[in-house]
Amino acid sequence: MNTPLPQTTIEPQPDTLNKVAETIDLIQPEVKTSELDKIVVRGGRELKGDIRISGAKNAVLKHMCAALLTEEAVTFTNVPTGLRDVRFLGQVLSHLGMNVALSSDGKAILRAQEIKTHIAPYDLVRKMRASVLVLGPLLARHGEAHVSLPGGCSIGGRPIDLHLRGLEAMGAEIEIDSGYIKAKAPTGGLKGAIIDFPFVSVGATDQLLMTATLAKGETILRNAAREPEIVDQGNALIKMGAKIEGLGTSEIRIQGVDKLHGTTHAVVADRIETGTYLCGLGLTGGSLRLKNTHIDLMPSLIAPLMRAGLDIQQEGDDIIASRRHALVRGTDIMTEPHPGFPTDMQAQFMAMMCLCEGASMITETIFENRFMHVPELNRMGANISVQGQSAIVRGVKKLTGAEVMATDLRASVALVLAGMVAEGETVVNRIYHLERGYENIVEKLSGVGADIRKA
Ligand code: UD1
Description:
Helix content: 25-40%
Shape: elongated
Bound molecules: uridine-diphosphate-N-acetylglucosamine
Oligomer: single chain
């Protein structure tokens, strides 16, 4: 069970910060217990009502690592503090010496007054790949970092060569030894460099953007990632005193500064969570108000959803959406780096297409092994065949509930969505993955009418 975190009155005072360790201690046993939890969904209900969209996981994780760059306290609001990934990273950072205060009202106060160790051990890093993003900030601030190699994951090998080559271009000496990346900055610190990525990488862009803020001179990142979460990351760094131009374009220029300072920043809305609930609506029908999110964050996602038959509009800070016809229309998509269709929405879009009128071709170009949800959706009665990087989804009349299991976050949620229209009961095992990235998903979906519960 997801025990709510204690609500703390948070001021960036040393006194409050001392309480942080308690918060993290409370989290640890809880994180271990629910790996075997399941979600049970019964299909057949329309979605109707309001869902508040959380802050973006993929922005928050980078913000948390960036807080290593300053000795002052950095406060983030709109943080999905209930997410396992946020808590896991909190554990890594607290091991390094950061005081991490997470509260259930979505606030994170982070203060790395001093770096206590530059070693991020395997035990902590293996739980979450993104913890490799402590490497650059540690190196920039502390001059040395030993970070366990994160290893592969179910969606592919996921190397980090671009991160390492970029850090080397900035003068770091790097060796891989006993499963660890051992990096050392040169005497006098890291220097700015021109880094031309051979292909777009979100993680490498984040890593080098953060690192370059404290390097001497100018760094130019070419063929940089343009995701809204990177823009958000850059904007927070600017508030911390960094000098950055070109965010949201493929060339980012960073002028290194001597020091960064504390700030307060509200995290951008989670476009993937937004898109996930829109795909749910495409399956069940009904109408949703998704609060505190914006279609401008996700044009390449909104366009195919509208082609498929959703009406989607912005109203103030909310997105309102409904399904136009009884069925969505077969719509093709191909995943690409932003501003293309996000790979993190591919599984959910495929689930939506299972009941489409016609057929849909879905092509995955970012990760080599991101169709693991296909056999599970087929067990529920879908008609999907995979040819290399593409899947053809032929619309079927109905799905039927089954016991299913997924090996990654987005695949798991795709199965939950399918369960919301399947006949009978769908049991999604290992919801551990879901809790890494979807805050209060059971509460949010049952709040708009879905028949869903944890078991
Ligand atoms: C981030 C997101 C993840 C999303 C992905 C693509 C976070 C925490 N995670 O992951 O949810 O699915 O972007 O939008 O933000 N690659 C290399 N060498 C490298 C780095 C990457 O070969 O050094 C490859 C990867 O294996 C992959 C592709 O480049 O095939 C894109 O990966 P990348 O954009 O780096 O993804 P992540 O940052 O890991």
